[in-house]
Each structure stands twice: as structure tokens, then as C-alpha cells.
Amino acid sequence: MRSFLRLVFLVVLLLPAFVLFARAGDTKDTEVYARIKAYLDTVRGIDTHTHLIDPHTAERVRQQYDMENPPTCALERTWRVSYLTWAHPLAPWSKDRKFDTWWKVAEPQLRNYRARSAYRSMLPLYTDLYGVDFDTLTLDQARALNERMEKNYKRPDWPEEVLLRRANTELFVVDAFSLMPRPKDNTFPFQTYVCNVQRVINGFHPSETKRFPLADPYAFAAERKIPVKTLDDYVALLDRILAEAKKAGAVGLKSPNAYERTLKYVWTPKHLAEQAFGKPRKELTPAQIKAFQDYVFWRLAELSAKHELPFQIHTGHAKIPDSNPMNLVPVIQANPKTRFILFHGGFPWVSEVGMVALKYPNVYLDSVWMPTLSYTLGKRGYKEWLDMISSNRIMWGSDLFTIEGTYGATRYARQCIAEALAEKVLDKELREEDARRIGRQILRENALEALPLLKKHLKSPAETPKPST
Ligand SMILES: [Zn+2]
Q1: How does DSSP assign 13-40, residue by residue?
Q2: CA of 398 to the centre of ligand 1 (A)
Q3: How far is the CA of 14 from the centre of ligand 1 (A)?
Q4: What is the mean pLDDT of residues 128-145?
Q5: What pLDDT does 184 receive?
Q6: Dist. CA 399 → ligand 1 center (Å)
Q7: Which end is more exposed in the chain, N or C (fewer Cβ atoms within 10 Å of the end residue's Cβ)?
């Protein structure tokens, strides 16, 4: 009896902890989450940023798997070109070109990555597309999985099956690192594009840009016989590039320059930028180069408004701490007619980027890549932003190169959005019907609002493939 009483006492004592655990345990086990997720799965997404490779490159990759001793394998490549390998090793494809040799070295490395979001964001592709649990694969199962993946790569309908029917995305905004769109036969029918201005910002001298013919403003000028002798000529050239890009189907501009310099773009008088114009790097100081870049960035911000091409800017996760989105405040404040779309949730400065959007209505937040970098921070980001700003200014994207990787990142982002919304409902901070509506906005409608030129690329419902279940 005494021990029975002790047991009752223990249960009473621990009950609140169990209740807490049950609530905090997993939102994904709740009915609210299940209902929100099921609804969001029916929403045709619009992916605002990806580097999906074009069909010609995809074909080259496919052919690699036809060889008896392939230079790589599908499974290795899918991981290698994901974000898993950033600053983390993964065994290179084995010298003897045998799957078993590679797997024996790679598998223990992958085991160490199991908690990382860069790893977990890829798991849906294995569970959903192949019906396997990647965490528990044996060597034989891994080899068989790789063979199935390689077979699928050879299917011409595979991209559409995975990206449109299974991931349920309707349209992809592809950043192909170019000023103008690639030729039609070199793009997927379900993609549109942005004009990438990375090289333009560095165009103080043609030697800076000539290694990148598709993104080189001087190559663009030479083809059209446009003289570029002065800084004013250069700015006029940018105006022309944007006009032509828009005509050719660009829906916005994109700057990934945070990888190479600070986001602190300072207002700069013309005479300072002129000091660098036309001179090779070796004749310039870093301050002179920065002055030129700053000047051009401000002109691009103005031209973005003039041509109504919203400006997508990589923030966070590049140069640390120079990629803090707070650095952009002066240029945002001075250009209220420019629509700035700040990428990657400013990771890890998710609160800071929310604050920037709270203060400036011309700022939209794109969560692209955020859940893949950290699911925990991603979910926190969605919740904080919804606390701070109107729900029509948040978007998402997958930011990957491979078809399967894009599938994984898409499912993971959808799960993160659904979970953040479900938690707001469970916390009684949002009605469930509003959570569903907001999820639809984030997945689809906000992209059409922020990047209105996307609407031209939407297909009629009759032309759109039905999602698979
Ligand atoms: Zn990207």
C-alpha cells in the first residue's frame, strides 16, 4: 500500500511535466497541424528562387550514368551538390568508381550529419520518391537505391513528375547567373528567370567581368555596339540591360554580392566612383573599388524602381558579419519606390530582417534556404515575422540545383511553414482558417504580389499537371 501511495504521489508530481512534454513534444502529432498541412499540400507553390539546372546540362548528367564505370553516381551527386557539403566533408567519388567503396567511406560521415537541417531537408526525397528510410540503409539497400535513382534520371518526364506533380510547385524563378534568359530550348517550360547583376556591380573594368560571358555587361554592350567610355555611359548601359531583360521575361533583379563584400552600400558621389571606372584592379585601392560598387548598387536600386523589377538581395550566411541585412537600411530608406526582397531570412539575423521589414513597407522577406540552414531558426523566423509584419510580405524558395534536392527542400519548407502556423493556432494566437489562408499566401500568392510579372507565366488550370497523391 505504501508503495502504491508512493506511485500515486509520483504520478501526480510528474503529470504536469508529461502534459508539458506532450504539448512541446511534437506539433506535427497534433490534429491542427495535420489539417493545416493537408490543406497546404493542395496549394500549388511558387518557388521564388532556385538554381535548377537546365535540360541540356541535366542531359549531360544523365549520360554520365550510362557508362560502365561512371565518373560519379546519382546518390553521391545528390548529396554533393546539396548544402550538406558546405564546410563539411563528404567522401569524393571513389577512384575505383565502385559504389560500395564510396558508400563505406561516406556512410559514417553522413551518420554525423543526421541532426543537421541540410541533411534532414533531403530525407523526404528518399521516403516519398523511393519509399526508403535513408537513416537505416544497409549497403545492399543503398546500392539498390542508387540504381533506381540513376534509372529515374534517364526518364525525360522525371523533372515534371517530381517538381510539378509530387512537390506541387507550379512555377520556378531560376537564377541562372546570367543577365538575359537562356534560350528557350535550354530552359524548363515551368521556369521563369531573374536578371543577375553580380558582375554588373563589379564592372569598373572589363577584365573583372569577361570570365562570365552570360553575366558580362561589356559583352552585352559589344554585341549591340554600344560605346561605354564614361561612368554615365555605364549607367545608361545598365538602364538598357534592365529594359531588355524585362522584355525578355525577367521578373526581377538578383544580387548575390554578399558573398564577396559587405552589404553596407554607402551613398557615394559620382566623382568618387569615376576614380575607379576604366581602371584595372591592380591600379585601385579597395576603398576605390568599394566606392564604385556602392555607386552602381544605388543606381541599380533606382533602376529597379524605374523598370518595376523587384530587387532580390542575398542577405545573411555569406561574409560574416558583413551580410547582416541591417547594413542595407540606408539604401532601403532612400529608395522607398524600390521593392527590396531580402533573401534567406537574413540568416542567422532572422529577427533583424523582420525589424527591417517592420520599419520599411518596401521590404519583402523571402525565407528561401532558411529551413535548410536551420529548421529551428526557420520556424522561429516565420513565427516572429508573422508577429511583426503583414502576412502578404513573406515568401519561400528551394535554392537548389538538382531535381531531387529541390523536392526535399520544398517538402521541408512546407513542413516548417505548416508547423509554425499550427503552433500559432495551438498557442491561440491565430484562428485555424487564418493560418490556412496565410500558408497559402506564403506558398503562392505573395510571390505573385511581390513579383507581379510572374503572373504572365502562369498556365491555365487545364494546362497544369495534376498533383500526385
Ligand atoms: Zn541561391
Answers
A1: HHHHHHHHHHHHH-GGGSHHHHHHHHHH
A2: 8
A3: 48
A4: 97
A5: 77
A6: 5
A7: N
Closest CA to 332 of 323, 324, 342: 342
Closest by CA position to 258, among listed 179, 313, 300: 313
Cα torsion through 319, 325, 327, 332, rounded to 10: 140
Mean local confidence (pLDDT), 94-109: 94
CA of 303 to the centre of ligand 1 (A): 22
Q: Is the dihedral of CA 335, 336, 337, 338 positive or negative?
A: positive
Q: How far is the CA of 175 from the centre of ligand 1 (A)?
A: 7
pLDDT in tens, 379-417: 999 999 999 999 999 999 999 999 999 999 999 999 999
Spacing, Cα 50 to ligand 1 middle (Å): 6
Query: Mind listing the domains of the chain with CATH numbers?
Result: 67-153 (no CATH), 167-457 (3.20.20.140)
What separation in Å is there between the alpha carbon of 433 and the centre of ligand 1?
Answer: 32
- CA 403 to ligand 1 centroid distance, Å: 15
3-state secondary structure string, 117-146? HHHHCCHHHHHHHHCCCHHHCCHHHHHHHH
Cα-to-centroid distance, 323 and ligand 1 (Å): 15
* Euclidean distance between CA atoms 319 and 301, whole angstroms: 21
Tens digit of pLDDT for each residue in 356-376?
A: 999 999 999 999 999 999 999
How many whole angstroms from 183 Cα to the centroid of ligand 1? 21
Give the model's pLDDT for residue 58: 75
375-388 vs 403-426: helix axis angle to the nearest 10? 50
Closest CA to 116 of 365, 377, 397: 377
pTM, rounded to two decimals: 0.92
